Structures are given as structure tokens and as C-alpha cells.
Amino acid sequence: MLFLPVLVWYLIFCYAPMGGIVIAFKDYKILKGIAASKWVGFDNFHYLFSLPSFRQAIVNTLIMGVQRLCFSFPLPILFALLLNEVRSPLFKKSVQTISYLPHFISWSVAGGLVYMLLSPDTGALNHLLVMLGGTGKNYLAISSYFHRIVLFSHMWKSMGWGSIVYLAAITGVDDQLHEAARIDGANRFQRIWHVTLPGIRSTIAVMLILEIGNILSISFNQIYSLINSAVLDAGETLDYFVYRMGLSTANNFSVATAVGLIKSIVGFAMILITNVATKKLTDGEGGIW
Amino acid sequence: MKLRKKLSPESIFHFFNTLLMLIIVVVMLYPFWYVLVCSFSSLYHVQNSTFILLPDGIHLDAYAQLFRNDMIPKAYVNTIIVTVCGTALSITLTILGAFCLSRKNLPGRTGMTLFVVFTMLFNGGLIPTYLVVRNLGMLNSLKSLIFPTAISTYNMIILRNFFSSVPDALQEAAIIDGANQRTYLLRILLPLSGAAIATITLFYAVDYWNAYFYSLIYINKRSLLPMQAILRQALMTSEFDTMMYDDGIMNLPSEMLKDAMIVVTALPIICIYPFVQRFFVKGVMVGSVKG
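^ inputs. structure came back:
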């Protein structure tokens, strides 16, 4: 009986929207309602793939996902390895605590910080460039900088928090191994390379696979806090496309839902695949279920 | 001799490692510091300094301008209402759900778990959810910022795992002593789970405080927008200037007002953060234990 309110919540806010997906196959008109709108089969999907902006959104999402995988992913590992070598416990704890802070700041504030640092009139970066003899630019309004801004702000926000898992894994590495390596004459780098790193290998593998599974999920909040009409061509991700198509510039609910459905299915498949892969890699222990 | 000993590879490594860590600390904190300093500086200082490290005194002009009309206080009240009510609702539902899912003798438990976990793997997406909220008549009301995001399945699973780890013997003993399920939950399980519940409450509270996207799609009355949404609009749209300088006197550049707004929006989180961060870290570690 206690479960009833929870059940009702899930039915209304999770399962009812799943039913609403049918409008991806209809020509949904808000006045007619879902039931009375005409079935159109896969017309919405055909229409979608004929749109250059949709193809651009796929490309942008993939670019941002891949650059995140290549740069944002290794950063917390490196940070955890180096932080672990810090000798003073107090200093270590302080650095750790400070590095988590950006994780708890909303993207609208983080976007605001980026905006302020890059602002053409008063921003710190432009002041610095002018001082060094360069000319200031409005970086947020130039498409070619957008992916880099997304990457750097993501690194800034997620590096510390992402390192928690690795720091915990490093703590689990047997001290005796380090001791033995030291006696055998291994220097610090050799110990990191041959003892610590192999010790956290399985953690890295699991996190990597999860990250690959998430490759399409570029945080909508992040994009939304940084994008403007001048950089739409470089900045539009699939999520942003859904928003623009459905709720912002157009009210094409059916087409926007179709995009959402494609994303949900790909995401679902990715999770299933990565779960199998994780299990394989960790001999059946590392799967999500 | 002494000098040479000091310069062993070991100490060089420590020197550079410490330096790197200090650089990381600066990189993490400087954006906050920069915005804070700008918001308190004089206009002359912000426009003419090349690299701002310290304010030139404490000037409150930007804050005075910010609070001249009631838009910001209203937005702040909205944020507080949503955070308090939302967190209360969320934690109640999460405790109920986690409690039921952790009962080993409950019929249909596996089915319920699947029912819940499936929503983590597949969802209806933005538009169908929007249509549901719309059909419920929640558009343009703070309810739309509370109900649709009330349960985080992830948090519920974390709490379920915690509840499951409490020994069964406790429940058996309580039942023998005449307690029913409700008494057991309220009198025994909850007091035992203080830390876990505190962690999850904080997760929810931070999420509600930081949420801004839903308010921009579900709400189009400015008087109902929370702080984060007002901030985002201020940063990204030009109508903000006419909103803020409604008396027509533009005595400060809007950049400084935006600095002050960022400070006001982020301040509560930054202030409580040092005291509660250990709970957050604990939460992550609990979550990483497989259930």
C-alpha cells in the first residue's frame, strides 16, 4: 500500500510519456488530441533525414561526444593518480574538496562564469590578450570555438567529481605491492605505471564503457547555457534539436518526438551492449545488473 | 652537499606535483573569484584593469541596482519554494519506494523493481513529457517544477540498497514486539538511516536549486521563474537590459549586474558546500556498490 503513490508517479510521469511516443508516427495536432490525429507511418522520420540541420545535429553530437571521450575521460584518472602522490593529508583533502565544487554549481551559473571570462568588453581572457598585444574576440559568438568551450567547461566541471571513483580504487591497491616495488628499486613513475595503474585497470575499463554508452548524451543544460543563435551550426546537439523543433522556434511535436525516440532507442541499445561488454571484461562482476 | 640532497628526483617530483595541484586549485576557484571581485568593484576598475585580482574597495552599486525592482527577490522566493517543497516531496516518495523495494517478503517485488529500473533505461523523451505536464494543467505553475522530477530512480535504488543492508533480525524482533510495517519504518529503519537519508536529501535539494531548463519550457510568466532561469535569460537575451533598467537610467553596464546575479545565485550552494561535501562523497561511494 505504501508503494501506491510511487506507482502512480511512475505511471504518470514515466509511463504515460512512453505511450505519448506514438505521436512520432502521427501528424499530431494539439487541438485534435493524440487519438484523433492522423497516422502517417514513418513520414516524420523520412522528413527528418531530409533536413540538413538534423544531420548537422548528429555530427555535432558525435564530435562533442568523441572529444569528451578523448580528453574529459582521462583527465580525472590523471588527476587521481597525481593527487594520490601528494604527501600532506591536509593539502590533499583541500585540493580534493575544492576540485569537487564545480560539480555542484548549476550549468546556468557555470555558463555565466564562462560568459563573464570570455566577455568581449570586460572578460578576463580578452583583457589578457589585449595586454599581450592581441585583439579581443567574442569567443562565444564564433562557431569554430564552440566545441572547445563546451569541452573545457565540461572538463572544469567534471574533473574533480569524476576522480572520486578512481581515488577510491587507488586506496584499494595493496600497500605491500608498493613496498615490494620500492625494495626492488622502482622509482615513483615506475610504481605508478606498474603498480597503481594496473590496480585500477578494471575500474577504468568499467568507466570507459559507461562513458562510451553515454556518448550521445551531451548535457542539454550545458549546451543550453552556452549556445546562441550565432553558433547554432556548431552547437546544436540532438537534444537541442528536439527542443528547437518542438518547443522553441517551431511547434512540430511529432517530428521532435521522432528524434527523441531515435535517441532513446540508440541509448537503450548502447546500455545493453555496454552491459554485456562490461560483464565480459570483468568476468561477470562489473555489469550494471 | 645539502643542496644536492634536496634536489633528488623525488623532491623535484613533489615540487612540481604540488605546483600542479596549486594550479588546479586556482583554475577551479578563479572563475568564482573573478565574478565575485567584479561584482564588488567600481565601474572604473572593471573597465580599465587588465587583470583583476582584488576589488578596489567594496562597491555595492551592482547589488543595489539588482534589487531595485522585485524581479530578483521574487525569483529567489520561487527557487526557495520549489527547493523546499520539492525536496520534501522527493524524499518522502523515495523513502516509501525504497522501503517497499527492500522488503524481501513482499509479493511482486521483482516486478516492481523492473518497473522502476526500466525507466532508467528508456524514457518518453522531452516532448511527450511536456504534453503530459500540459494535459495535467501544470503549465505556468510551480507544480510543474516539482512533480515531474519528484523521484530520481537512481537515488531510490541507492536508498533501497542501504535499507536492504539493515539486518532482517531487526525487523523480525520489531514485529514480534508488536510493531507493524509503518512503525518499523518510522521508529527503527529511519533513525538507523540518518546519514543515507541526509545524503539523498542533499542530492535532491541541490538538483532543485540548480534546475533551470524545465522552468524555461513549462513556465512563460516571468514572475514564476526561479533564479537560475532568470540568470540564464539575463545572460543570453538582450531583453534583460530593458527589464533591469526599467527606470530608464543605465548607470552601470549590464555586465556588472550579471556578475552580481551569478554571485547571488551560486552563493547558497558555495556557502553550504564546505559543510556538507563529505555527505556527497559518501553518497557516490554508496551508489557504486552494486545492488
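The CA atoms of residues 80 and 163 of chain A lie 5 Å apart. Chain A touches chain B through 84 residues (CB under 8 Å).
thumbs up if we can close this ticket
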